[in-house]
C-alpha cells in the first residue's frame, strides 16, 4: 500500500488470508525496497519506522474530535482453513471502540482449531482508545481458541477505559509479543 492516509467511515474489515503491507512510495518491487528513517528521533531506526507512512486512520468524523471516530480495522477469522493474515508497515491511529480494540480487533468466531494466527509486524499504533484493548484486542468468541503474533511494533498513547491500554487478550487466546516498544499507554485497571 502506497504512503498516504486511508479512512473508511465504518473502518476496514480484513478477511483471514489477506496481507496488508505498507510503507511504499509507489515504485518499489519488494518489501525490502521500502525506505526507513529515524521518525522518532531517538538515534535508531526501529522496525516500524518507514519514510513513506501508510496510515489507517479512525478519525472519520469531525477532524480532531475523537468521540466520532471508529475502530480502524477488524480481522474476522471464521475461515475453514489454515491461512495467515499479515499486517506489515502500517500506522494504525485514532481508532475508537466502545467495546474492544480501538485500533484492531481480531476475533475467532468458530470452535474449529487452526494453526494460523494473524501476524502484525513493523507497525505503529498511536492514539487509539477502547473499553478493553486501546490499540489491539485479541478476542475469542463462542469458546474458540485464538492466537496472534505482534513483533517489531510500537504502541504509543493508546488508552482503555477498563483494561489493556495498548493490548488486551481475552480468555482462550494466545498472544505472542516480540521486540515491541510501549510508551504512554494507559488504562483504568492495568495493562
Strand content: 35-45%
Helix content: under 10%
Describe the global form.
globular
Low-confidence stretches: none
Assembly classification = single chain
Distance between the terminal alpha carbons, to the nearest Å?
31 Å
Rg for CA atoms: 16 Å
- The succession of helices and strands, N to C, reads EEEEEEEEEEEEEEEEEEEE
Query: What's the total helix number?
Result: 0
What's the mean pLDDT score? 88
Strand order of the largest sheet: 1-4-7-11-15-19
Structural class: mainly beta
Number of strands: 20
Instruction: Sketch the major β-sheet.
Output: 6 strands, parallel
Describe the structure.
The structure is a single chain. The chain has 191 residues and is mainly β. The chain is built from no helices and 20 strands. It has strands at 4-6, 12-15, 20-21, 54-57, 73-77, 86-88, 90-93, 96-100, 104-108, 119-121, 124-126, 129-132, 136-140, 146-151, 154-156, 159-163, 167-169, 173-178, 181-183, 186-187. The strands form four sheets. A six-stranded parallel beta sheet has the order 1-4-7-11-15-19, with no helix packed on it. Strands 2-5-9-13-17 form a five-stranded parallel beta sheet, with no helix packed on it. Strands 3-6-10-14-18 form a five-stranded parallel beta sheet, with no helix packed on it.
Question: Can you give me a brief rundown of this structure?
Answer:
Helices cover about 0% and strands about 40% of the residues. The protein is an all-beta fold.
